[in-house]
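quick one before i forget lol
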Amino acid sequence: MTTDHQIDPRFRTKPHGNYIDINQLYCYREQLGIIRDADSKRAKACQDLLNRIDALLNDLDNPMRVVVAGGFNAGKSTFLNALVNQRIMPVGAVRSTCTVNVLQGGKQRELIIQWRNGRHGRHEYRSYQNDADAQQQIDALMKTEHHSIAQIAVCCPNQPFLERFTLIDTPGLDHNAQDSAASAAEVQRADALIWVLHNKGAEKLDYEQIVQFCTANPDSPVIVILNQVDALEEDELHDALTATQNKLNAHVTAVLPLSAKLASEGQAKKDHTKLDASHFYDLRNYLQHHLFDQYRTLQEKIRFQRRSQPLIAELQRFIKEVTAQQQPAAPPLINSRYADLGDGTVLDTFTNLQWMRCALGQTWDGKNCVSEAKKFKLNDAKKAASKSNYSGCSDWRLPTIYELKTLVINGKNPTINKRAFPNTPSS
């Protein structure tokens, strides 16, 4: 949170309006609305930016997106089943996940199917009776309709932490181009990343994707799971874990071992020996303390700051451009000193005084001073100046002797700049 003097008090009572970046977005939204309504040429650009502001503001309190990614058959779905202690996601020795599947909070058991190209309507809602029914429906949809499905969301009413965190199960990055593209798109939108590796450690594609995400999202937790460790001897596990940590620790939050298979079996059979051997308890505790208990911190760092700041920078550039185009061009300077204001007056940029280009009695024809200048006694000149409406101004006065001397060019004849003050009488 920032200090009060940086906050526009008009927007303090808006949702999260006491945070400086969010407060600025409310300010920019007001400015864009004014520009859009006053400038039809910029209406579309303003509306596009307004839509982006609204999308970001509307997303502030949504659940954090925790994407589970990794290679084909790395055990992502089995890990997620163990994490929520429900057998919902289809698993198997063959390709089990070929759509993006989401575990989210909800008040009732239902599947929300997001179809591509509006098929069956944009979304379709189906109820499920229990975990087995959900798994069976998802499995059937992935086998027969996966080309038509963008994602399948599973609402889990008995998982309170899913009200703040959405878990996203992705297809394998290394199976085919479509799966890789779907996974990469979800990783790009992640607030936090859990990367599941085979027990052989990080391959080239794993390493590249993890480092790329960490570089683009320095505030996002990245937790790497070395899965399938039940297939390793103790010394093999030590070597594989050490090698993976040495390779990734400079980039990620943690590298932790797991046997998702043993964890799932241990939960199903209430076998604590298998659960202990799976390393699941250590992993779950780590995720709880370093991820799921950190909602507010992650919200501030990722939603309030990292996501808003690039948009704020773009808004600043847009407003600056609009403001610059709305401002009149600077008047041309005469002899690098007098700004021609275009109305028969000049501004002396040395003294910041505005002068009539013509003497009293003369008029400005757009190029020159015409007619004869009048002669006045001092008091009469003061009165004539105060009553003058020259160039539409009514606050004229005689200059002081010191102000008048600033126009004098010593050692020159004439002693006044004739370009700035044409046809000025010599006496």
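fyi The domain at 64-293 is CATH 3.40.50.300 (Rossmann fold).
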